């Protein structure tokens, strides 16, 4: 079983991966750590940490895809989280692999961003890793508008590729329960197929 968690910044992806690790006893990989490990080992790796999500994603995806396929082939489970998993990448998997992947794409509605950008979204950023605690966050009107546009673009990509998109609209905690419930249901489906002897590889 592979669980992929993606979405724009400040969505709580790492926190969610940590919670799933505790619940399922399945390790997780932060793509941010992979990114920085590659860059620090070779600054000529083809990207910098300041490049766009697309540039970094395109460089890292072949590695991430290989990790996913190897885990599936070895009947191992892993949770992988990071904004660099773009919806269209999942089209790379043939059905035997795709059937063992649970993909989660997260975003906020425009209304939620307007009402909660500084008080909730920025305030609770990086609660697991503690990144950016000492940094001054930009909460200007321009920053909020840019963040909305990024969320809209991510939502559009999910719709175009047919990937399930979970949008937080009113209450983060309550609506995230639906995401965890979805993961549980998909996990049960995968496990049922295996119990029935439907080994997809």
From TrEMBL:
It is an enzyme of class 2 (transferase). Gene3D superfamilies: P-loop containing nucleotide triphosphate hydrolases. It comes from the Bacteria. Keywords: Acyltransferase, Transferase. GO terms for molecular function: acyltransferase activity. InterPro entries: P-loop_NTPase. Its EC number is 2.3.1.-. This is Acetyltransferase.
